[in-house]
Amino acid sequence: MTTITPSSLKSAVTPLASGRIFNFSAGPGCLPEEVLKQVQADCFNIAGSGIGILEHSHRGKVFDKVLAEAFEDFRAISNLPKNYQVLFLTGGATTQNYMVPLNLKSYSETADYVTTGYWAEKALEHAKVYGTVTEAATSKDKNHSYIPSDAQIKHSPKAAYLHYCSNNTIFGTEWHELDAAGNNTWRHRVPTAPAGVPIVCDMSSDIYARPIDFTKFAMVYAGAQKNLGAAGTTLVVIRDDMLEKKPTDKDGSAREIPWLLQYRTFAKDESRPNTPPVFAIYICGQVFKWIRKQAEGGRSCLDVIGERNIRKAGLVYSVLDSSKFYKGHAHPTARSLMNLTFKCPTPELDDKFCKESTAAGLDGMKGHRSTGGMRASVYNAMPEAGCKALADFMREFERKNG
Ligand code: PMP
Fold first, then answer.
1. Cα dist from 87 to 236, 270, 344, whole Å
2. Catalytic one among 105, 119, 175, 290?
3. pTM of the full predicted structure?
4. Active-site residue, 119 included
C-alpha cells in the first residue's frame, strides 16, 4: 500500500498557488476556497464568541443565527415562496428514497418514477417497501445516455407523485429544455405531469447549478456534499400541502410514521427536533453566502453561476466534439453541466489517462465502477481555470496517444 504524505503528494502534482490541486471528485466535491478559509477560522472561534462552531449548542444564540441565516440565504437565492419549507435532514439523499413514499403515498396508491440512472433506479427500488410503484419511463435501453421526452413518459392514473432525478451523477446526463430545433438550451426541464400530480425531484448533483423555479415542484431534495456544502445533511424543499398528507397502510389504517421520519417534525422545529448536523448546516450556510455573492452586473447569482457552468462544461465538451479519440457517454441534448463522462479508445488508455491526469494535479476523474472511463465533476466551486486545465490536458493526451 502506498502511503500518501503531503510531501509525496506535492512532488506528484502541480499545485496551485494556494497549495491545492483541481479536485474533480463526484462528491464530496470541491468547495469554494474562500468558504474553506472561513470554516478554518470559525472552527476555532466563531463570531467572536470564543468558541468554535463545532462546540456550540444547537439551541444557543450563535447557532440560532447560523441557522436563521442559512434559511434566509437559501430562500433569497431562488426567491423561494412562503408556502415552501426548507429542511435540513440527515441520512443522505438515499434516506429520501424511503421518506418520500413513507410520507407522500398510501400503500394502495402508485407513484411514477422516471429512471434515468443509478440513483433514480435506487429510488424506485427502495420505494417498493411502501407498495406499488411504476417505472413511467427509463433510459436503460441506451445505458442511460439520454433523457426521455415527455411523450415517452407513461403516467399512471392518479399517481401519488412523479419522481425524477434532474442530474445523473454517474452517467453524466441532465434534464434540459430543448428549443424548437431540438437544441439544448441548458435550461432546467421539468417533466410534465397530469394536473394535480406532485413532482418530486432528486437534485443532489445539480441544485443551484443554474436558475431554478421551485414552484414547479412539490418537493426537491439534495444531498449537500456536491453543490451545497459538506456531507452530513440533506436539504429538502417541500410545499406546505405535502406536510399535511396522511397516508394509509396496507390494511387501510392510518400509517404510523416514526416522529423523526416525518417531514412535518422538521418543519415545525426549524430542522432541530433533536441535535441536527450543526457543522454540515453551518457549511451550507457559508456556501449559500458564497452563492449570493456571485451576483454581478445586475444579473442574479444563479444566472451568473449558470452561465459560468455552461462555459466551464463547454471547454471540455468542445474537446470531445472535435476529437476522434474521446467518446462522450451522454447524448449532446442530455449532457450534464456537472458530471462530464467520456472514454478513451481502450480501457488501458482510460487507466493511463487517470494516472497521468492525477499526476498533473487533476484529481478524482476515474469513472464510476458501473460505467468505467472518466468522469470529471465540475460543481459550482470548480473554477473555470480547472476546466481549462482539463481541456488542455485532454488535447495533449490525445496528441501523445491518439
Ligand atoms: N442521488 C444522487 C443524484 C446522487 O448523486 C447521490 C450520491 N452521489 C445520491 C442520490 C445518494 O446520496 P447519499 O450518498 O447522500 O445518500
1. 5, 7, 42
2. 119
3. 0.96
4. yes
